């Protein structure tokens, strides 16, 4: 494997492993979206 | 109860049915607030999106009809990429809440990396992500081309990230000392997560790349889901230049690393 290919793959791995979105973020967003949706329906 | 075993909701008084729907929504949200182990939350949402019956509402409060009959396949099933996003978006417009859940679960990593690639710290990035999805909810009916959803998300996230950074700067005078603190706290992962020196050096070099390079490299990491075409449109780059620009960014990274003592 040449240096650039190694770098490319290592960077992919680092971005995904070291800086992923927090696990609870999707739940937080879904909660906010549903609350906004309900408020829209009431109005 | 009907002959096939399902509840005949139309027989219930409208107000009572509406109240039951609200209680059901609140219960689901309460359950989903409980933290889940890594990866389980998103997987559960997607599994639920495939398996659960669409909402049936007969209260008259809803302005949009529930479009999918119980047990019918979801319109986005079996689709990938822009076709899947467009099908979800159309279903969400028609009132299928599960469609929006699928979009949030699948595209939140993209929105996150756009925010992080625009120099937004982790805590602020969470706020940016939420703001962008709420903006999509408000603009559901105004997106002219549903297949361009990813581009819309990237563009909106970049703007919101810039707004967030400006707001942050307004609250915190950026002295040299503060800037150095921010760099270490906001960008570098926790030391214990960096198991090897090479990873630490690589990440340190990555976060010193120009912002445009960092953003492009982050976005193309997700290229399985985000097509280069959407990335190019959102970054105002010619479509054929994404690959070469990415290559130049990687070469810059390599050159910086080769100048570091202890890299080889």
Automatic annotation (TrEMBL), chain B:
GO biological process: DNA-templated transcription initiation
Keywords annotated in UniProt: DNA-binding, Sigma factor, Transcription, Transcription regulation
RNA polymerase sigma-70 region domain ranges (all copies): 103-168
Signal peptide (residue range): none
Domain of life: Bacteria
GO molecular function: DNA binding; sigma factor activity
Pfam family, one: Sigma70_r2
UniProt xrefs under InterPro entries: RNA_pol_sigma-70-like, RNA_pol_sigma-70_dom, RNA_pol_sigma70_r2, RNA_pol_sigma_r2, RNA_pol_sigma_r3/r4-like, WH-like_DNA-bd_sf
Residue ranges of the region described as Disordered: 1-21, 49-79
Cytoplasm found in the keyword field: no
Similarity section: Belongs to the sigma-70 factor family. ECF subfamily.
NCBIfam families per the UniProt record, alphabetical: sigma70-ECF
Protein name in UniProt: Sigma-70 family RNA polymerase sigma factor
Origin species: Solihabitans fulvus
Organism ancestry: Bacteria, Bacillati, Actinomycetota, Actinomycetes, Pseudonocardiales
């Amino acid at each position: 494997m040449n240096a650039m290919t190694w770098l490319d793959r290592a960077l992919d791995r680092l971005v995904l492993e070291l800086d992923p979105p927090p696990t609870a973020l999707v739940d937080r967003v879904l909660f906010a979206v549903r609350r906004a949706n309900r408020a829209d329906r009431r109005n | 109860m009907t002959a096939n075993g399902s509840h005949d909701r139309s027989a219930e008084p409208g107000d009572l049915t509406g109240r039951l729907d609200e209680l059901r929504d609140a219960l689901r949200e309460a359950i989903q607030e409980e933290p889940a182990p890594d990866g389980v939350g998103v997987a559960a949402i997607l599994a639920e999106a495939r398996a659960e019956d669409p909402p049936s509402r007969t209260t008259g409060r809803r302005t949009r009809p529930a479009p999918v009959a119980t047990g019918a396949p979801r319109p986005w099933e079996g689709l990938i990429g822009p076709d899947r996003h467009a099908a979800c978006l159309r279903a969400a417009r028609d009132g299928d809440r599960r469609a929006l859940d699928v979009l949030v679960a699948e595209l939140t990593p993209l929105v996150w990396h756009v925010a992080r690639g625009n120099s937004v710290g982790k805590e602020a990035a969470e706020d940016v992500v939420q703001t962008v999805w709420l903006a999509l909810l408000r603009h559901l009916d105004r997106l002219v081309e549903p297949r361009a959803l990813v581009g819309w998300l990237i563009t909106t996230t970049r703007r919101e990230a810039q707004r967030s950074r400006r707001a942050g700067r307004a609250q915190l005078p950026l002295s040299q000392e503060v800037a150095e603190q921010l760099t270490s706290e906001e960008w570098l992962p926790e030391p214990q997560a960096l198991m090897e020196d090479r990873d630490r050096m690589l990440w340190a070099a990555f976060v010193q790349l120009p912002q445009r390079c960092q953003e492009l490299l982050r976005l193309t990491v997700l290229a399985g889901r985000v097509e280069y075409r959407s990335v190019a449109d959102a970054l105002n780059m010619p479509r054929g230049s994404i690959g070469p620009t990415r290559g130049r960014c990687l070469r810059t990274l390599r050159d910086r690393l080769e100048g570091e003592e202890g890299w080889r």
